[in-house]
Write a structure and sequence with these properties.
Elements: H1 28-39, E1 43-47, H2 54-62, E2 70-75, E3 85-90, H3 91-97, E4 107-109, H4 116-121, E5 174-181, E6 184-194, E7 197-204, E8 220-224, E9 231-234, H5 239-243, E10 245-246, H6 261-264, E11 265-266, H7 269-272, E12 277-280, H8 290-299, E13 304-305, E14 317-318, E15 326-331, H9 341-349, E16 351-355, E17 359-361, H10 364-381, H11 389-407, E18 412-414, H12 417-433, H13 441-456, H14 463-470
The chain binds adenosine-5'-diphosphate and magnesium ion (MG).
Length: 477
Amino acid sequence: MTSLLEEIETTADVRTPEDPFERIIGQPHAVSIVRSAVVQRRHVLLCGVPGIGKSMLAKAAFSLLGKPREEIRLRRNCQHPDRPEVVRLHTEEHDSVSHPPSELDTVYFAPDRLPFEIGVKMGYRCPRCGSVSFPNQAKCIECGAHKRCDWSDDESYHGLFRMLDVVGEPALNFVTDLREIGGVTYHVTYQRASENQIAVTRQLADGHDIDSSAGIESTERVLVGRNSRRFVRVSGSSPVELLGDVKHDPYGSAEGLGMAAHMRVVPGAIHEAHEGILYIDEIAALGPYQAHLLTAMQDREYAISGHNPLSSGAAVRVDGVPCDFILFASCNTENISSILPALRSRVRGYGYEVMLASHMTKTTENRNGIIRFVAQTIEEDGRIPHLNVDAVREVLSVAESLAQRFDGKNDALTLRLRELGGLVRIAGDIAVQDHSAVVLPEHVKRAEVLSRGIEVSDPSGLAYGRSEAAVSKDYYL
Ligand SMILES: Nc1ncnc2c1ncn2[C@@H]1O[C@H](COP(=O)(O)OP(=O)(O)O)[C@@H](O)[C@H]1O
Ligand SMILES: [Mg+2]
């Protein structure tokens, strides 16, 4: 193999691959395992120091996955408003619902399930206390209030319903309303069928009516859309982020009053990664939530409920929300013992543990790899000039000294490429300040002094972590 140093003038002459796997330098073992793992839908635990390509591997794996087949929706549950139902919609079905039938069967239900304001208009519900009684009873059986009076001065929050305009009006036998159901707008007619029964019919609304339906709550909503990006990254240990939540609403699920339960459900990362990849950075940091993650992996579905016990969201639960993801987890070598043993054995039984290298031997091929890495970094950054050959030699010698400093290896090149990428970017910024069209060796040297400065002033060795924190968030992905 010939050295790229003999073939190029600047890093602009280096050919960089498009394939995200080929862009990963110095980890051939990990690359080959990950490639086959994804095809078989296996979980992967990536171990190794920061900045060596763990996130890159997970993202490359994602590029091999096909489009998701399922969309996850939630439907309002009329019998149990606090138990919204899950609808798993296959892509093929999706296309058929875009042409819904124009009229649907009439359904019957009890007056207490009418939307609040419709219940008031039809004379069932008391606008003051909200309880339900027959329309022929002028006074509420619960609070004794006149059902057709203006209670707007009243202390209770039902006084809000002054805008309902029922004052003095007789109770209505039927009410028509516009509702959006699954993205389609219908005229919904509520009609008194018997003393205790309401007939509900829906009919497709005309196009020009659709605007006036704005703000009307739908009875079904998309939780995880079929076009959503199913690569989801989790860091930290928030159960809400991982497992989902139900937002608080001061009115709870009171019919027509608060926001319906199914609208308040927030999916967790495990659900958003359904059919895709869930990437957990530093899995040990999940602490006790690793057990929940394990359950989700075993069952491939996980209930969403409110996490704050003081919130009205705590009363809500959605069972069986699908979460059939491939787990990619990263772990620092020291933290491997903090991974829940059962979770680790699940990964081993149904996937792979891969150790990533932090350095590589100084062969021509590997030196070429570092050169290609420099070219990739400049390409990705887009704001800095390329390096001339001598500047590249300088980067190679820094790569060598980093392998010596961090890993105690001679004749090796570092694979802590986030660190090396930082150096290239600083050198590029210095060249830009110098109005230089290419990055020269002196720019690399000055960049190295700058980046080393932090470490010298911090003998504890924590500087590595700190300089990492200073890097913008993008580099973590
Ligand atoms: N093996 C590698 N090949 C090419 N670039 C790398 C490699 N490792 C790290 N990098 C560079 O460093 C950045 C951070 O890498 P990342 O994959 O987030 O590391 P990790 O997840 O192991 O902490 C990447 O965006 C890339 O620019
Ligand atoms: Mg990362």
